[in-house]
């Protein structure tokens, strides 16, 4: 069953939560979680950034300001891995304990 936020007229909606701007599917997932009564705003420390300094520096030089989260179920180390991207560049991961909680809440609507 489709929800109000699945309507294409909401394709360009955006919302800032903490330090992040959510758009598109991320915005829709936030609305879905809210409708289920799940508290959603949280600022997190991104794991693995020391291995991705060049990507972070490049994203910041290019003025990237929107972070996105991408589930990575094929990750060989953690089936609950959630990649953090900044300006389309992979800059780290959601910490494993938090990623498992997020997967339990279902990232997809």
Tell me what the structure shows.
With 109 residues, the protein is α+β, with helices and mostly antiparallel strands. The chain has one domain: Alpha-Beta Plaits (2-Layer Sandwich). The chain has 3 helices and 5 strands; from the N terminus they run E-E-H-H-E-E-E-H. The chain has a 3-stranded antiparallel β-sheet with strand order 3-4-5. A hairpin with a 2-residue loop joins strand 1 and strand 2 (20-23). The longest helix is centred in the N-terminal third of the chain and has 12 residues, at 24-35. The protein is globular.
Question: Layout of helices and strands, plus pairs?
Answer:
Elements: E1 14-17, E2 20-23, H1 24-35, H2 53-61, E3 67-71, E4 82-86, E5 89-93, H3 96-105
Supply database-style keywords:
109 residues, 5 strands, alpha+beta, 21% strand, Alpha-Beta Plaits, three-stranded antiparallel beta sheet, two-stranded antiparallel sheet
If you consult CATH, what is the topology? Alpha-Beta Plaits
For the termini, the CA-CA separation is: 11 Å
Given as residue ranges, the uncertain stretches (5+ residues, pLDDT < 50) are none
- Percent strand: 15-25%
Biggest beta sheet summary: 3 strands, antiparallel
Mean pLDDT, all residues: 79
- Helix/strand/pairing class, anyone? alpha+beta
- Which architecture per CATH? 2-Layer Sandwich
Q: How many structural domains in the coordinates?
A: 1
Please trace the helix and strand order, writing H or E for each element.
EEHHEEEH
Strand arrangement within the widest β-sheet reads: 3-4-5
Give me the number of helical elements: 3
**Helical percent range?**
25-40%
Q: According to CATH, what is the class?
A: Alpha Beta
- Rg result: 14 Å
Coarse morphology: globular
**Beta strand count:** 5
